[in-house]
Amino acid sequence: MIRRMTALFLTLLLLAPLFTRGEELAELDAYVDRAFEAAKTVGGSLVIMKGEDVVYARDWGYKDLRNMLPVDENTYFRTASITKMITGIGIMRLVDMGLLDLDEDISTYFGYKIANGRYPAIPLTLRQLMSHTSSVSDNGGYSRSGNKVSEMLAAVHDRRGNFTGKRPGAAYSYSNLGAGVTGSIIEAVTNMSIDTFMRGAVFEPLDIEASYSPSRLTNPGDVSNQYRLGKLDRAASGALAKPLEDFADPENHYMITIGNAWLRSRDMAKLTALLCGDGSYAGTRVISPESVYEMRREQMDLGRSVTGPSPYGLFLEHNDTLLPDKMVYGHQGMSNGAILNCYFEPESGFSMVLFSNGGSQTRSNRIGLLARKFFSYFYELYN
Question: What integer pLDDT is reported at residue 15 of this predicted model?
């Protein structure tokens, strides 16, 4: 009898930490669920990483509200402007290969002169495009779809309305068109569609299922709808019905790079960990440590980034308001109601991906506030 009681006691003692961890996880899940509910999110996914390890993940709500199809780890989200951060990895891969130069006149890649007509002698560079200092105006982004790059930016046309009044390289001004042109440059130097290049150079080596054309995904049925304030704004069927042409067309494909990459949250976490680290993930190097440093490095201290009064790297926002005395890097994306956030803090190796398919796009958007809340909460929990 004594032996049996002793064995039972030892068994319970060994299982106690499991019960405790289970209870802690349940409390975390409840906390995250309440936060998603309070933010009036239709569907969302949160991934927390420490180094290359996923230390917490939670999927919530619906990818298709009408049919009550839940968000899960296989759900693809449109990443909106986080696409820029993703594309930046591809650009730096080409820099490492010697096929691109951050400070080369981009006219070299297009075969005709591109210039701000007010400053025709000053070259536009990839560094400027990626740091939003090129003077290319954001007016040429979504509002100018259908026009060729040459029609908008070639010096011969002198379309000054597509440029700001600032000298190239002298002032920060967020530009979707400028970001789109970087994708055109990738196609120009590789003679591949950006989707084909990114799959081979970045996604497949990391076992990432992603595409700039959602119809090419292995399971298109896992593509999420997008909702604005709880109402359907963009159905997945619409995105799937417009497949990207699988060939290089630098003049016309610039719109793709602005915000059209589709990923699962766990796969985005891999790319975030890569940038939080040294450019490799799980033993696979994608870009050099020098390229990671260059993406993070403050290019110019020119006032406001998208998220606050801080400098900007190469397709990476700098945010000094999320944590006291620490610089946090990443990007935010907003599109058709969907709001997405991706941030990392390199000293600790801590990173977070928060995807949602529906929320408010106002300045005080609830999903954006939720991202700040989650980042500080989980940072304290795991550091």
Answer: 41
Q: How far apart are CA 225 and CA 233, in angstroms?
A: 8
Q: Distance of alpha carbon 121 from its chain centroid, rounded?
A: 34
- Amino acid at the residue 57: A
Distance (Å) of CA 305 to CA 92, 162, 331 = 21, 21, 10
pLDDT-based confidence at residue 360 (cuts at 50, 70, 90): low
Residue 26 is assigned to a structural domain of this protein: no
Question: Strand pairing partners for 69?
Answer: 64
Residues 45 and 267: beta-carbon distance below 8 Å: no
Choose among 333, 278, 325: nearest CA to 307: 333
Count of other CB atoms within 10 angstroms of residue 14: 9
Count structural domains, the chain. Answer: 1
Structure tokens at 230: 């709880």
Q: Which residues pair with residue 338 across a beta bridge?
A: 335
SS3 of the chain: helix, strand, coil, percent, to 5: 40, 20, 35
Residue 179, both tokens: 């970001």
| CA pair distance 192, 198, nearest whole angstrom | 9
Domain that holds residue 155: 40-382
Report yes or no on 2 lying in a domain.
Answer: no
Q: Rounded to whole angstroms, how far apart are CA atoms 322 and 300? A: 20
In a domain, 340, yes or no: yes
Flag whether the pTM goes above 0.85.
Answer: yes
| CATH code at position 265 | 3.40.710.10
Type and span of the H or E element at 107: helix 107-110
Closest by CA to 81, choosing from 312, 378, 338, is 338
Q: Is residue 29 part of a domain?
A: no
For residue 46, which amino acid is it? L
Residues 6+ apart with CB under 8 A from 281: 52, 206, 270, 271, 273, 274
